[in-house]
């Protein structure tokens, strides 16, 4: 099988490519140049797509003895991931850029080009398992990335390979060292790859400027302060609210709702964050087939947390997810991923983008 290995310059994608070679596939490595300023170097575990990363990927390909190319996807990445990220925050939503990168870049733009060039599959270093077209959680729960892959269609999964999902991360590093890959001890990337400083608020402020609005107590309607823009907040946020006096009952305040048109950010106690129903748009089903009726499942609303037993059902073009126990910090723009609640509980059924919730105070 002809395999295109997406090599980020990290240890996971290098070992994934190595395993594809060892399995007997005809492998070609490709590094995606996504950054608009590739001259910037990484700072430890922050940032990506730098010249350093491209060099690390090339050296790994040389060790493996496979052809290697660098493809410039910076324009597509800027439009489909970065610009969309900024637009979502400006609209009061909380996006997951890693999820959108998988959806729009690695398994859309990259996969489409790979198939057009005669490749059979794209191989990545994601921590997930793919068995006979069924997407499952990785063996290593702390590294599991099935949530950010839950947006993939059945057709995309049919042309995907995730060779490292059956192995814990420490063993992947040990294998890299055994194979002579210099990235064996390279730090993992954290935070948002296109914000190497880690300052998301500053990144957004630079692009959106000041959009003054009010911080309002959700219960009393009292104006508690001013802010520079709704893009500085997300539902469930506690720190950095800019409220300088405690609530009357002494309890901490959280962001409950964001209203981008009026610029109002409503805050209040944690119990008002409880969500028991989620409405999702643009549902995707990993099997390629939508269910005929209600589906018992486990819903997950964040990459490594936010799980609850649930019942999901299509309502026209939308997905309604009724939670058996409330979740907090559920925000429009996030994804809700659905897992089969069997003995393993690790099979991905599908996902949808959260449009609204039934939180007592909600901007949905």
From TrEMBL:
EC number: 2.8.1.13
Keywords: ATP-binding, Cytoplasm, Disulfide bond, Nucleotide-binding, RNA-binding, Transferase, tRNA processing, tRNA-binding
Source organism, top-level taxon: Bacteria
Binding site for ATP: 6-13, 32, 125
Interaction with tRNA, as annotated region: 143-145
Enzyme category, top tier: transferase
Chain ranges of the tRNA-specific 2-thiouridylase MnmA-like central domain: 203-268
Main localisation: cytoplasm
Protein name as catalogued: tRNA-specific 2-thiouridylase MnmA
Annotated catalysed reactions: S-sulfanyl-L-cysteinyl-[protein] + uridine(34) in tRNA + AH2 + ATP = 2-thiouridine(34) in tRNA + L-cysteinyl-[protein] + A + AMP + diphosphate + H(+)
Pfam families linked: tRNA_Me_trans, tRNA_Me_trans_C, tRNA_Me_trans_M
Family listed: Belongs to the MnmA/TRMU family.
Species this chain originates from: Pseudonocardia eucalypti
Gene field: mnmA
Site residues (Interaction with tRNA), renumbered to this chain: 126, 334
Database matches in PANTHER family: MITOCHONDRIAL TRNA-SPECIFIC 2-THIOURIDYLASE 1, TRNA 5-METHYLAMINOMETHYL-2-THIOURIDYLATE -METHYLTRANSFERASE
